[in-house]
């Protein structure tokens, strides 16, 4: 299937916060209570529709365990979006956000959109991090924030799609050079034929996008 | 984990021409059905190795791809630093390898290749395994001969007795992860 853009995402955060489960819920719409520990990176992809455009999300699900941390850092490069995940029932995963954020800022494009996710919202009785704390952290660091449950699928779609919307908004504003793949954005096969303009340029001659392109 | 798949869940036989990494420079790839103890094909993956830097003499990454549900074309499932993976020759006569992750998770793959080139291709993998193990200082014999380590087959769940409980990792189970990335457009970048 063709697409207008491809966005590279990474999912980061402490081990056991539910990164792989979020990906599985988003791509396969199912929940797996026991999941293998991720080593290296595992991939997922899904097409979403943003503003009438087909956008393919290429998602890199990384290892959260400390022993893989140095390897994980090498995967940040060229990501347009990051889902920074903590577990609302484990305070320490929230406390480690600053360290993850430092890594993300240091090893990725300054324009990368970061969505902070408090996962496991279905476990309200075991909550250890208040929603307001997550909101405050996000506000302080310029992140988008959502609480999700990979188990019930609550807000999972929204988390991935809202990140894509923000990236798309930045493209329209010309903040992303879509011709530089180091920014984690790739123009779809048809669009790349049609476009020859500079940063932020939009595809013009695609059957996906038709004539409703809003930014050209 | 994406590389494996539950037995019988996917029996798609990917065609060689669809192999995503055929044209990637410096990559060795082949089709490897995951096999059960009864010799049945549980799943088919494409396995390849690559070096993350041209300065490296040996590959340092293992890549696994599998067929998509939609069109059966190969998509990348995972990228695993070889420092966390061990490859063994499990059964030379049947061209079977064992892939074992540091988490204890393991699975068995049997090379699929035309009869006339199968031995040659498997021999290339064996030579690669020798080099990787020699380089890693693990000795030069990449054969499992699993008298003590594994007692024969266990294609679904393999717990590494050397992995202490609570140390790194949990007992593992082969999990299906449906195929993801479109190989035709070479979308993997950023390494």
From TrEMBL, chain A:
GO biological process terms on file: defense response to virus; Golgi organization; innate immune response; macroautophagy; positive regulation of exocytosis; positive regulation of type I interferon production; protein transport; vesicle-mediated transport
Gene3D superfamilies, alphabetized: P-loop containing nucleotide triphosphate hydrolases
PANTHER family: DRAB11-RELATED
PROSITE patterns documented for this protein: RAB, RAS, RHO
Protein's cellular compartments: Cytoplasmic vesicle, Autophagosome membrane; Cytoplasmic vesicle, Secretory vesicle, Acrosome; Endoplasmic reticulum membrane; Golgi apparatus membrane
InterPro entries named in the record: P-loop_NTPase, Rab_GTPases_membrane_traffic, Small_GTP-bd, Small_GTPase
Name of protein: small monomeric GTPase
Membrane topology annotation: Lipid-anchor
UniProtKB/TrEMBL annotation, chain B:
GO cellular component, one term: nucleus
Highest taxon of source: Eukaryota
Domain called Golgi associated RAB2 interactor protein-like Rab2B-binding: residue spans: 78-135
Gene Ontology biological-process entries: spermatid development
Biased composition (Acidic residues): 146-160
Family indicated by similarity: Belongs to the GARIN family.
Protein name according to UniProt: Golgi associated RAB2 interactor protein-like Rab2B-binding domain-containing protein
